[in-house]
Amino acid sequence: MGSVNHSLRKRLDRPIVLVGLMGAGKSTVGRRLARRLDLPFIDSDAAIEDASGLSAGEVFERYGEADFRDGERRLVARLMDGPVRVIATGGGAYVNEQTRKLLNERAITVWLDAPVDLLAERTARRPETRPMLKDGDRSEILTKLIEERRPKYAEAHIRIPSTGGSHGEVVEAIVAALERHLSHP
Ligand code: S3P
Fold first, then answer.
1. Which residues contact 52 (CB under 8 A, 6 or more apart)?
2. All domains of the chain, ordered by start, with CATH?
3. DSSP state of 89
4. How far is the CA of 9 from the centre of ligand 1 (A)?
């Protein structure tokens, strides 16, 4: 396993960026994937927090969605200039056309595709961190977001179905898909 990691790592010349809806597991899986590949990890929501002193949710609520999206777009673009690492993005980042294009050019993009019931269950755990889900029925909002965003997330280089197996299984599925992607991009 170590030698597979080693050769995979050597061939990675660009960041791995996880995209997908809230609750898909981008942060948790991203952190584990980074550990598995011995790479640094960064979470764009956490980077927003470091830069602003407010959580991503608070920035969203205090300054409004448009300002949040604009700041997020600039921050994610800056992350492309950093070292090779695993990056978990907020669910809306890759929906922006400019960001999607940039990430597909400069990174390997991985869509964690999870069903709505799993997303609803996971996002119920810390509702205060998800301002988009607080005014209405969580499953309904997520269903609508999936419908709107699916064609965009589908532009990612790699799609990983995440249907409720363990995070470890998802990490292994990503590693296998990265191996394939690097052999036949
Ligand atoms: C959002 C997802 C959130 C956060 C913000 C908006 C979205 O990140 O950036 O609340 O539009 O999908 P997570 O996907 O990490 O929850």
1. 59, 71
2. 2-175 (3.40.50.300)
3. P
4. 29
Residue nearest ligand 1's atom 3 by CA: 90
Query: Helix crossing, 65-79 with 44-52: angle to 10°?
Result: 110
The model's pTM is 0.96
Residues of the chain with pLDDT under 50: none
Atom of ligand 1 nearest to the CA of 26: 15
The predicted pLDDT at position 127 comes to 83
Beta-sheet strand order (sheet of 108-113): 41-43, 86-88, 16-19, 108-113, 158-161
Atom of ligand 1 nearest to the CA of 88: 15
Any bridge partners for residue 18, and if so which? Answer: 88, 110
Q: Which atom of ligand 1 is nearest to the CA of 95?
A: 11
